[in-house]
Amino acid sequence: MNKVLMKGNEAIAEGALTAGCIAFFGYPITPSSEIAEYMAKKFPLQGGTFLQAESELAAISMVYGGASTGYRVMTASSGPGISLKSEGISIIAEAELPCLIVNISRGGPGLGGIQPAQSDYFQATRGGGHGDYKLIVLAPSSVQEMLDFAMDAFALADKYRTPVMLMAEGTLGQMMEPVIPREKVTQFADKPWAISGCKGRKPNIVNTLHLSPEFLEYRNNVLNDKYNLIEANEQKAESYCTEDADLVVVAFGLMSRIVKKAIMEVRKKGFKVGLIRPITLWPFPVDCVKKAAETAKLFLSVEISMGQMIEDVRLAVNGKAAVEFYGRIGMIPSPQEIARQIILLAEREGLK
Amino acid sequence: MKIIARRPESLTPARFHYCPGCTHGIIHRLVAECIDELNMRENAVGICPVGCAVLAYDYFNLDMLEAGHGRAPAIATGIKRILPDRLLFTYQGDGDLASIGMAEIVHASARGEKITVIFVNNTVYGMTGGQMAPTTLLGQVTTTSPYGRKKEETGYPIKMAELLATNEGSAYICRTAVNNPANVTKTKKALKKAFQTQIKGLGFSMVEVLSTCPTNWGLGPMESLKWLEENMIPYYPLGEFKVKEAQ
User: Fold this and answer.
1) What is the pLDDT of residue B245?
2) Which ipTM score applies to this complex?
3) CATH code for A4-233?
4) CB-based contacts of A279: which residues, under 8 Å, 6+ apart?
5) Which fold has domain B24-243?
6) Is A160 touching B (CB cutoff 8 A)?
């Protein structure tokens, strides 16, 4: 198919439509609103539901209802909105309903700002709401990936009956790049658990209240087994120049592209530096980082935050090498700034 | 042998967990009878609240979903928009609907969402142990208004039927009670009319049912019915507040 020029937020919406999403329930918030606006234009023409809810709480509750029918549905928001949605996300995770939740992230805490940030990493990868649950979290780094990962997210959601989050910095949502459209998905998994009226079968019940302690523990074990399976099967990362690297930078999303550019520069100066880009933030690509830790002498986590992913990097490196941090918030570091940091560290450690 | 009374098909054989004298059981049965009579059991989806009726998914013999506190109308919206020919109902108490779920109920009504809300008003939070609700009457003693509800501190009880009747999207709004056989019959008629309003696609429908809570009121079952009649009905008048006919 011919390439088309698209904005990141529109690419997510287009990816969702291509994946067979038939309903969007959302509440406006910068910098994610274009996703809702795109759906508001598309659904009335091609069939499907766009509904602007009265609140983030209502929007995620509509997603909960919509997902219970077995059809592909989604919502999109940004950090402060995801905080409000966390009640519903916890319910959806325990009800084991597939759906897509998009976080076009901005800086916090509080109302924060509308500049891009990665400081919702903890919120995304630690569940975010109450109880023991996880979301699969995908982090695209290009507008093409915004489209592709939206499709992947729906496939993973159906495969594991779990909510999937796509998290991208505001910049990715706002910038334009050429995108190759994909073939429309027309085959979907059977969903015998769906709520649709009990014609010809026993009633289905979607419920997350478990008053019996034994059953509550059983339910947590069921979820935990599923999360273990996801951790074993779905870790995804991109490695760049890590084979001979003394210093491995770990960065995701938009930040990884800036780091890649910095690495190209410092390599020209003879520093053996590589990049690991986690594509799944949860499950974190532990195996990939572990492998790099067999040879690398130093890791550097670069984030648009005060340092959140670094905890996962440390856990994966498990003491085999030192793990350093560099981050900004509200501001996006330039490739030159990252290159300077890399050289500073490499020279300090005598890595040349 | 002729069967003259039996459990509606829309109810399971499970025994209700409700306290002696509580009128939830009557209301459950009326809802089930209406769904049976409309032949909609296999086409119906019910949403239970957080509150005393939280376990209603064990009692209604049809597809059921358990909501977060107050969110039932939004959840019903999500389902109804995707499956518009299903019969959607929410079953909610006063804390759920008129306090934490106020935004969801007002906007579902304003949108003219084609769902039916069964609103059980017994003036207290039952399941959590009798705390003050937005519908608690002035002077009424609850565990969080131990000296009686004072208007200076907590304002006035909210009249949901009157409030929602002002929304254009509301097609049928009625308040009934289940304190005596005549009112039980009227409640069933109202419930059926509400479901028919939805089936005809006229808009949002709600029946507010004045109900008892003997346990948290500290009264016997018979005294509770009397208390409802003498205290609740004067403040919460019975009747239809909005009836939109087909155009």
Assistant:
1) 84
2) 0.97
3) 3.40.50.970
4) A138, A139, A236, A237, A238, A252, A285
5) Rossmann fold (3.40.50)
6) no
